[in-house]
Amino acid sequence: MGTREQRLAMNEAWFREINDRIEANALRRTGGPHVCEFVCECANIDCAERMRMTLADYEQVRSDPTQFAILPEHDRPETEAVVLRDGFWIVRKTGPAAGVVAERD
Questions:
Q1: Summary count for the chain: helices (H), strands (E)
Q2: pLDDT digit string (tens) for 42-85?
Q3: Residues ≥6 apart with Cβ < 8 Å to 34
Q4: Whole-prediction pTM value?
Q5: Per-residue DSSP letters for 30-42?
Q6: Residues 6+ apart with CB under 8 A from 99
Q7: Sign of dihedral through CA atoms 76, 92, 16, 26?
């Protein structure tokens, strides 16, 4: 895997770490089916856009360490496949990038 693909995968893993903290804080405060604002987990390190999803939706995404929640059209077809298109999209890393993000989980 090239350096660029590895960097993109690491960007997504970093955004996921932020969202894990958002989820943990929300669970401490509410413990229920709460809608939160999560950061887009796309590979673009400059993306600061937010998306709304329930904690259950986020847990669904996190059930697979190669999946990420992104805003529509923020996907990178060269390293991931869209598996769900809803208000937010779920993408699954493919190829060597999947191994990089699974190691970071």
A1: 3, 5
A2: 989 899 899 999 988 999 998 998 899 999 999 999 889 999 99
A3: 26, 54, 55
A4: 0.79
A5: T-SS-EEEEE---
A6: none
A7: positive
